[in-house]
Amino acid sequence: MSVVHRPSRWARSALFCAGIAFSAALALPAVPATAAPPPDDPSRNPAQSPSLTDLLTRLQTLYQQAEQATETYNGTQERLDKERATVDTLNEQLVQQRSAVQAGRDTAGALARRQYQNGGVSPYLRLLLTDDPATALNQAHVLSQALGSQAALVGRLQDAEHKLGDLTAKARASLDSVHRLADQQRRERDDVKARLGDVEKLISSLTGTQLDQLRQLEEQGIDQAQQALLASGALGADNLSASALGRRAISYAYAQLGKPYVWGAQGPNAFDCSGLTSQAWAHAGRPIPRTSQEQWARLRHVALGALRPGDLIVYFSHATHVALYVGKGRVIQAPRPGGVVRLTPMAANPILGAVRPDA
User: CA spacing 20 to 30 A to 324: which of 111, 224, 336, 347?
Assistant: First the structure.
């Protein structure tokens, strides 16, 4: 189950200009690079004034916090779904086990009644009176064996029922724990969204000139970070070809260009960052973890110099953002609230590293 949050009205106008990256305020871990210092004459570039720079820094921080909280919430929701499935499976097994125990008890009761009915006559007298002593002896032996085996079976079934009941209780306790964790994560996410809303109101109050300056500042920071990355040689020759699965993932990602970023969305009409990458690889035939943190933790890491199209680029120190590498230093990503799935330079955010889903 995904929680989908629609972007507010300002998102499609004001924040389209502001953007998530603002790389001027950040440095790439793999390639130290920052935006150029502001010009000597502040009047030539008012967007570099301290008040606006502080606003952009605060916005960048809040976006990162919001995405981290959302990815953590998505991971908790994934755990919650798995716990629910586990409890459902255990409950089904418990019902089946109880039915088996009851059937065993019924069979054992029938055998006991039959033995009681046959037990009214002494075994010795029965042997003397029967026309076929061998058959009577064999029936008594089989009946005795069946009753003993059935009693042992009922005992085993009862033990299994008790163990399964304990396991189900533990699973339910685990489910309660995850519910509490999900509530906590939701509160944290909502808190970040509230603080983000304060900054959004400030941005929506800016003039058209200021928004243009914000756009220029963003593009300047990204361009400088991208140039530094390419000049560093960290990407190597960048001449590797995508795998067959990688080509399918890339094709899927290209087909999503222009669709809006929505928190918690996994398509088909909207995506968040890891919703896009996980769905791209799922449609390629290789399911991967849902969240950027799990993608970073569970998929094989590759050096930037060994990148091939289809690999995932993970951003920020807590692995809170992810994009799909398509080659030549570019990625497809669902960038931020108010934005759309787009093709961007891979240095649009501080790079943590890269992982390969089909290693």
Answer: 224
pLDDT recorded at residue 48 = 46
The answer to whether residue 34 scores a pLDDT higher than 70 is no
Q: How far is CA 155 from the centre of its chain?
A: 43
Tokens of residue 127, six digits: 């042997």
Query: What is residue 36's predicted lDDT score, i.e. its pLDDT?
Result: 33
Tally of CB atoms within 10 A around 264 = 19
- Mean pLDDT, rounded, for 63-71: 78
Least confident of 118-122, 230-234, 299-303, 320-324: 118-122
Residue among 107, 92, 105, 108 at smallest CA distance from 164: 92
The whole-number pLDDT of residue 307 equals 94
Residues forming beta bridges with residue 5, ordered by sequence position: 263
* Better-scored residue on pLDDT, 39 or 71: 71
Instruction: For residue 43, give both structure tokens.
Output: 């009047």
Q: Between 296 and 99, whose confidence is greater?
A: 296
Which alpha helices (DSSP H) does the chain contain, by range? 14-18, 50-118, 123-129, 133-204, 208-232, 244-255, 273-283, 292-298
Single-letter amino acid code for the residue at 8: S
Mean pLDDT of 42-47: 42
Which CB contacts under 8 angstroms, 24+ apart, belong to 133-136?
A: none
Residue 47, helix vs strand vs coil: helix
The length of the chain in residues reads 359
Contact between 67 and 314 (Cβ < 8 Å): no
DSSP class of 347: G
The pair of structure tokens assigned to 158 is 């009862």
Upstream peptide bond of 133 is cis (omega within 30 degrees of 0): no
User: Cα angle at 354 between 79 and 301, to 5 degrees?
Assistant: 75
3-state class (DSSP) for residue 342: strand
Is 242 within 8 Å of 253 (Cβ atoms)? no
Alpha carbons 318 and 295: distance in angstroms, whole number: 12
